[in-house]
């Protein structure tokens, strides 16, 4: 009876379908990119950050208009400012994780002109080579579902952006990350994978690698003076322009707060409900990516989530009123079968996986504002 009552108290704070970790706002005022950035930081959180196509649809559906509008992506041209990214959202590139062929990446050698810069990557004999994104190669697509992951070798030669668009339209994305590369056995010919580099950075400092350019030219570091990104709303793609042009823009409001205090799970729950709204619930991959960006500032190795196990009823549940089972989004470090009482979930700051932890341990925690 006590556990059932506790469960009722914990759940039902907000519907997971209506709660969001961030919200977009369309501002129909014409400003330069810098003016728009200042406005968003003073009024909301920052210029809009976009992490995947789900965000793109949310962004464009927030206004019924045909305007081109600023988002929070800015380029810092120059070879020294380029940074490697995996195409698949949610994966971060690590310099120590790659398998470059000896001498790669080499940009076609010293002194190569900007138009020959090699900002996209192929694989051959499990080794990586940088190449010009306009080259034509076959490529590997990854398709991830709840049931299984599959890999598809597309033999039709395409440029890197064309290959990326094909994979995103028909599957999930170009193969990304070392785990996926192990499923791509290539010998004798180079094949595109989902690794690229560019000079673009998000205004809020996020490391999201998602790009949705309308044309190939945006991927090539040609030293252009057009260094601020826009959304083409009707096409749901991006372009770029001179930053002193005046356009409407998108801001976002962050509803996620990292609390750098070490407390038990119940203390974290009480704090969030007394001072904000609730402990955070992660019910989809988009929310997971958003939490991963914010967890980098935590002072403990784990951070409490709003996920708890009830041994009386025998299941894990989010405080936002969703039971966790095989049909729902999950990111456990391993298969979780638990008969333990007094267990809650925390996200690891190293690998971003969820772990069950005794809820009397003390960690930082995430609250939501709404």
TrEMBL record:
Ranges in coiled-coil conformation: none
Signal peptide residues on this chain, from the entry's feature table: 1-19
- What is the name listed in the Swiss-Prot or TrEMBL entry for this protein? Macrophage mannose receptor 1-like
Keyword field: Signal
Top-level taxon in the UniProt lineage: Eukaryota
CDD domains, sorted? CLECT
InterPro entries according to UniProt: C-type_lectin-like (IPR001304), C-type_lectin-like/link_sf (IPR016186), CTDL_fold (IPR016187)
The record's annotation in Pfam families points to: Lectin_C
Which SUPFAM superfamilies does this UniProt record tie to the protein?
Answer: C-type lectin-like
Question: Where in this chain does the record put each C-type lectin domain?
Answer: 24-142, 146-252, 250-368
Q: Which Gene3D superfamilies match?
A: Mannose-Binding Protein A, subunit A
Organism of this sequence: Betta splendens
